[in-house]
Design brief:
11 helices, Cholesterol Oxidase, domain 2, 7-stranded antiparallel β-sheet, FAD/NAD(P)-binding domain, alpha/beta
């Protein structure tokens, strides 16, 4: 069968197909892997729960995009509802709606993996070079940064702190700022217009609108991938039955859905699946400027700072980035209500938002969170906010306020339920009057990692160094769930690189 992207209107009757490789998930891991395997002449089927959107579908309206292209209609949260979980759901996964920021894996993280997790000799440089070429990953010029991002360079510059221009996977970018609701000009080099198109051109079939219920395992082999078609507006599958019988099965559903799918399949790797889930927990601050910032316009993230990435062996570090402020996301993200919310939205063109993303998973006592199953089979994320994270939140909040004040804001505010508003650095001591942690202030995650950790020790890892799921001979995991810690940088390029490396490993097993 020739390559194609099929959807619910095409899959109206039950199917029972065979193939060489069935990949569940079409995001950063699944798409790169599919393209590489299809290019080798293998019969590849990619199964994706989300809908296939193209630029003609991107209305640039949050009211359309958030419920359609995000997990659980953009309402996904931790089990205690303390952490907002932003995660894509479409052909291309989160790459369809991310902010395009790309980093190679920091050497500090690679060294930690080698020392603590036995992941030695992981040479990703040639794989990074390949995906950087294909996805046009390159530095966004500082001169082109919008005012929202220049807050970081201006503030860090005056404080004597490190900052740098960031790399983005764009080609022909219109600098519109609408990355989070789908690029209307295909400037963002997301998986749907790059690696998945490469895979289809080489003969791969991509099945959208299909929720995989489970891997069917007999002995030590996956014998079938079972799913159901669902219409885009449906909350549960309501269509034909899909059965794929592959020689090799691959879980690429991401760090929440992937472990949940494995657990639904009765695969828990001795209780390790879903454990050590990391999320770069995020805290934010807002600042108001007299001059217009227009934080909804321009490249979302083009300047960042790793001044506090490494705070020593006993502290959780964090990195600093700016956040675009589209109206709906801003209104729901910050704990503002009534007249306060009305005032803030009226001032939106004059606001800036900074983010401090904690680097979780590096301290010996930090084992992150856990993914389990809800009664309906969906993933449930339990992520406790431990004292070392609270300290990181406090430190990160102060750093962001210092940057905003140094850059000349009129007023800066925390994202506490009862926010602290400051106009001078002398007032920052009042931060000690606020509490930090769950339900004390807004906490977000847009980066989900871990849950199927890669490692050398079978008693501590779900997959081996070749991405093979321990105990199942023909099952691989290729996505962000294999990361044994968080990264301290946006994770997309690390996942691209690992998937590019995995092509040869999976192909050799067919």
């Amino acid at each position: 069968m020739s390559g194609a992207i099929l959807g619910h209107t095409d899959l109206t009757a039950d199917v029972d197909w065979t193939c060489d490789v069935c990949i569940v998930g079409s995001g950063a891991g699944g798409a790169v892997l599919a393209a590489g395997l299809a290019a080798k002449g293998l019969d590849v089927i990619v199964v994706e729960e989300g809908h296939h959107f193209t630029r003609k579908d991107f209305t640039l309206q949050e009211s359309d995009a958030l419920p359609a292209m995000y997990q659980e209609r953009a309402t996904r949260a931790s089990a205690d509802v303390a952490i907002t979980v932003l995660q894509g759901r479409s052909v291309g996964g989160s790459t369809t709606v991310n902010w395009t920021t790309c980093f190679r894996t920091p050497q500090r993280i690679l060294d930690h993996w080698a020392k603590v997790h036995g992941i030695e000799g992981l040479d990703l440089d040639p794989h990074f070079e390949a995906v950087e070429s294909r996805l046009s990953i390159q530095e966004w010029p500082a001169a082109a940064a919008n005012a929202n991002n220049r807050v970081i360079s201006d503030g860090c510059g005056k404080l004597g702190w490190e900052w740098k221009s960031l790399k983005r996977n764009v080609r022909g970018c219109a600098n519109s700022g609408y990355c989070s609701v789908g690029c209307p000009v295909d400037g963002k080099q997301a998986m749907g217009i790059t690696y998945l198109q490469d895979a289809v051109a080489a003969g791969a079939r991509v099945l959208s609108n299909v929720r995989v219920e489970r891997f069917e395992v007999e002995g030590k082999r996956v014998v079938a991938v079972r799913g159901r078609v669902m219409t885009p507006a449906a909350a549960e599958p309501d269509g034909a039955q899909i059965i794929i019988r592959p020689k090799i099965a691959v879980s690429s559903g991401g760090a929440l859905n992937g472990p949940a799918m494995l657990l639904r399949s009765g695969l828990d790797a001795g209780g390790l699946v879903g454990r050590r889930t990391f999320i770069h927990p995020v805290v934010a601050t807002l600042a108001r400027y007299e001059a217009a910032v227009n934080p909804f316009w321009g490249a979302p993230q083009s300047i960042g700072s790793h001044q506090f990435f490494d705070r020593g062996d006993d502290k959780v570090g964090y990195f600093l980035e700016a956040a675009p402020l589209l109206p709906m996301l801003t209104a729901v993200a910050f704990p503002m209500f009534g007249a306060e919310l009305n005032q803030a939205m009226g001032e939106l063109p004059h606001l800036n938002a900074l983010l401090a993303l904690s680097v979780d998973g590096l301290l010996p006592e930090d084992d992150g969170g856990t993914v389990t199953l809800r009664a309906d089979g969906r993933p449930s994320l339990d992520y406790p906010i431990r004292p070392f994270l609270k300290e990181s939140f406090r430190h990160g909040t102060e750093s962001m306020l210092k940057i905003q004040l140094a850059s000349g804001c009129a007023e800066a505010t925390t994202a506490h339920v009862s926010p602290l508003r400051v106009k001078s650095v002398e007032e920052l001591s009042k931060l000690d009057e606020r509490e930090y942690g769950a339900h004390r202030h807004a906490i977000f995650t847009a980066h989900q990692m871990g849950g199927c950790a890669m490692g050398k020790d079978p008693s501590k890892s779900v997959v081996d160094l070749e991405h093979r799921f321990r105990g199942v001979d023909n099952l691989f995991v290729v996505d962000g769930s294999v990361l044994p810690t968080s990264l301290g940088v946006n994770p997309s390029e690390t996942i691209y690189g690992l998937a590019h490396r995995a092509v040869e490993l999976v192909a050799a097993a067919v």
